[in-house]
TrEMBL record:
SUPFAM superfamilies: Prokaryotic lipoproteins and lipoprotein localization factors (SSF89392). The lineage of its organism: Bacteria, Pseudomonadati, Pseudomonadota, Betaproteobacteria, Burkholderiales. The keyword Phosphoprotein does not apply. This is Outer membrane lipoprotein-sorting protein. Residues 1-35 form the signal peptide. It comes from the Bacteria. Keywords: Lipoprotein, Signal. InterPro entries: LolA/LolB/LppX, OM_lipoprot_carrier_LolA-like. It comes from Paraburkholderia susongensis.
Length: 249
């Protein structure tokens, strides 16, 4: 790997953890219509009604169209995990040209995220409650950061995972949320309402339908990360190799 490639790898890698935390947790698919059972629909409707009522009574000043947000969260909370292809384009103030990377992503609510970059270099990042691990192309762990060392990533990841579990209180406690569209085709903007988060993140734009289709992360320093997703599929269990990456036996 040349000097420029190493530089690009460092820059891309430095933002991967934050993108994983935010993006991985909002990748949940809606249950396909042909696979949804009456019980699942009833549970989703009940969850949407409950969270909508909670939002109306406790967080009305921080949400636009809270009922839609609740419906989206209720749908997304139905699946265990998702696998998708991604293309990430980073526009950085310190770089003249955008940095583009691509690969595959696997997310499990109870385990974490595996982010595999295929181009412009090969690397794997694994984020769990224990921290973040980087794995090289030979399968060797080349760096490890504890949860304490990645506190910001863990905080955002925990908040987003709570949202996808139907608990919107964590989301509304840190972001003003505006949503439009329908559960079948929606757009959402998250704007930090806490100074600690606003120091780093200007806002998040998300759009999706059955799956998350795009995510735009705008940082306070002017850097922008755009993520596009394709070939998203629901996954019930990780492979043995993926379980090993997650640290499971």
């Amino acid at each position: 790997m040349g000097a420029m490639s190493r530089c690009a790898a460092l820059v891309v890698g430095s933002s991967v953890m934050g993108a994983m935390a935010v993006m991985g947790a909002v990748m949940w698919p809606q249950a396909p219509a042909h696979a949804a059972t009456a019980n699942a629909d009833a549970n989703a409707n009940a969850a949407a009604a409950t969270t909508a009522a909670t939002v109306r009574t406790t967080t009305a000043t921080t949400a636009t169209n809270p009922a839609l947000v609740s419906q989206i969260a209720a749908h997304l909370a139905q699946a265990k995990g998702v696998r998708a292809q991604f293309t990430q384009t980073q526009t950085l103030a310190a770089m003249k040209r955008p940095l583009v990377s691509s690969g595959t992503l696997l997310f499990f609510r109870e385990r974490g995220v595996i982010w595999q970059i295929d181009t412009p270099y090969k690397a794997t990042y694994v984020i769990t409650d224990a921290g973040v691990v980087q794995v090289n192309a030979d399968g060797q762990r080349v760096s490890t950061q504890s949860a304490q060392g990645t506190r910001g990533v863990a905080q955002v990841s925990k908040m987003m995972r709570a949202m996808l579990g139907g608990d919107l209180s964590a989301l509304y406690s840190q972001f003003d949320v505006a949503a439009e569209g329908s559960p079948a085709q929606w757009r959402m903007r998250l704007t930090p309402n806490q100074p600690q988060i606003a120091q780093s993140i200007k806002g998040l734009d998300m759009s999706g339908g059955g799956y998350l289709q795009s995510l735009r992360i705008m940082l306070a320093n002017g850097d922008v990360t755009q993520l596009e997703f394709a070939k998203s599929t629901a996954v019930d269990e990780p492979t043995p190799a993926e379980r090993s990456l997650f640290g499971a036996p």
